[in-house]
Specification:
This protein is of the alpha/beta class. The chain is built from 15 helices and 24 strands.
Length: 494
């Protein structure tokens, strides 16, 4: 395997020290059999790091360490002290923000500005849930003068977190912070393509005073390690973010042990633009909705549902702006970085090529991009497919790339029907100056989050999750905590 001690510079940015071992029970360890897997810079196509490829024995060890910590020092840690630890984690993430951002960009390919934003958000999750650690209190139940009845919120136990490759650090923080605030322990399995920031986070958690074994990170191939975690008898809850097929498998495996799951799966979210919309705001919102992280976002606004009256005017603006978006190595901070892998780029290209063969107009983009100096990178042009039929695969299926499908409608009522016309229900957005229309849309659309006149509105405090094939359960905000505690009711006759 490669020499991880080699320091290099890419796009004028120095490469920091990279984590190279798993963390189990507070110790940095290699895989039990010594096997390792490589991680590739998507902008060059070249290996730049490697990490252990965990075995089933490593999974057993991580779960056992999490259970030991659950029964030991973490259980004895006062809730207020849990909060102080999480606050220190937030401070340390901010201290190391640039190092973490560079690592995230190398691993995932996203522009450095987006990675910096992700690091800030990750710190925010620990800060937000730090504030709730000593406020998870139960209720008194009035059964009359002869009884005392009350509830307790108790940790669910050992939580497993299966992390996707598109937002590695943010998704880790999003699940681990509320889990730890509620008194649980965690075993994290990052995606094999992007394992590094989950390992780097372990060092910051330890520095903040988290007891050994409360956070464990195992790296390896998802089909083996992920299944082992989801079906492990020592795991009490699984939080999974990823594709629909993998999420279905996670639920099936967990069901054999009656283990609870939170599933945040795919999306095919609509951005609705009505005739009275502020087109400048709608153009900016749509560009962000589909091209952030090169479209590799489960909540991406990948469908533009637009009133026919403003279709031509908005499409002209969108095409012009999309053609101006820079594409390059994430460390050079372009508007779009590469897709995560060559195989994923081929998948995205197949969708677009199929649409073109079916006669769908490609308004802009529609193919791979070669970036000077990074010819091995997995770049794909910002793409817009115009006037797509509602039954077409590029409307009905998640592409997970920088591909926007435009659907033209003739009324606000039709826009709702079209918005609801896929098997997904993660997010939806609408641009209109009529607040009543916006609220009727929010009432009638089948989605877990609705944005009005700004896509990706909200933040850490706002519950996030979907309906239909987009999964169930909620992350972010106070709603996320429900997955990480169980309610115990105690009743006494007095």
């Amino acid at each position: 395997m490669m020499d991880r001690a080699v320091h290099r510079e890419i796009a004028g940015v120095a490469i920091p020290d990279l984590p190279g071992q798993m963390v189990i029970g507070g110790r940095e360890v290699d895989a039990a059999d010594g096997d390792r897997i490589e991680t590739v810079d998507p902008a060059t196509g070249r290996v730049f790091a490697d990490v252990p490829s965990a075995t089933l024995a490593d999974v057993d060890a991580a779960v056992e360490e999490a259970r030991k910590a659950l029964r030991g020092p973490w259980r004895a840690t006062l809730p207020a002290e849990r909060g102080r630890i999480l606050n220190r984690v937030a401070q340390l993430i901010r201290r190391d923000a640039e190092r973490l951002a560079v690592i995230e960009t190398l691993d995932s390919g996203k522009p450095l500005a987006e990675s910096r934003g992700d690091v800030s958000t990750a710190a925010g999750y620990f800060e937000y849930y730090a504030g709730i650690a000593d406020k998870l209190q139960g209720d008194g139940i009035p059964l009359g003068t002869d009884y005392m009845s009350f509830t307790l919120h108790e940790p669910v136990g050992v939580t497993a977190h299966i992390i996707p490759w598109n937002f590695p650090l943010v998704t880790t923080a999003r699940g681990v912070a509320p889990a730890l605030a509620a008194g649980n322990t965690a075993v994290v399995k990052p995606a094999s393509q992007t394992p590094l920031t989950a390992l780097a986070l372990a060092g910051l958690l330890a520095e903040a005073g988290l007891p050994a074994g409360v956070y464990n990170a195992v790296t390896g191939r998802g089909g083996v390690i992920g299944d082992a975690l989801c079906g492990h008898p020592g795991v009490d809850h699984v939080t999974f973010t990823g594709s629909v097929p993998t999420g279905i498998n996670v639920m099936k495996v967990a069901a054999d042990r009656v283990t609870s799951v939170t599933l945040e799966l795919g999306g095919k979210s609509p951005v609705v633009v009505l005739a009275d919309a502020d087109l400048d705001a709608a153009v900016e919102g749509t560009l962000k909705a589909i091209y952030m992280n090169a479209g590799q976002v489960c909540s991406a606004g990948s469908r533009l549902v637009i009133d026919r009256k403003v279709h031509a005017a908005m499409l002209e603006r969108l095409v012009a702006r999309a053609r101006q978006l820079s594409v390059g190595h994430g460390l050079g901070d372009p508007k779009l970085g590469p897709l995560v892998s060559d195989s994923h780029r081929r998948t995205v290209a197949a969708y677009v090529d199929g649409a073109r063969a079916r006669g769908i107009a490609v308004a802009t983009g529609g193919g791979p991009v070669e970036v000077a100096g990074f010819e091995g990178g997995y770049f794909y042009a910002p793409t817009i497919l115009d006037a797509v039929d509602a039954r077409d695969p590029v409307v009905q299926e998640e592409i997970f790339g920088p591909v926007l499908a435009v659907q033209v409608v003739d009324s606000a009522e039709e826009a709702v029907d079209v918005a609801n016309g896929t098997p997904f229900g993660l997010c939806a957005g609408i641009y209109t100056r009529d607040i009543s229309r916006a609220m009727r849309f929010a009432r009638d659309v089948d989605a877990g989050q609705v944005f009005i006149n700004q896509y990706f509105a909200g933040g850490i405090q706002t519950p996030f999750g979907g309906t239909k094939l987009s999964g169930f359960g909620r992350e972010k905000g106070l709603a996320a905590l429900a997955a990480y505690y169980q309610v115990k009711c105690i009743t006494a006759r007095i």
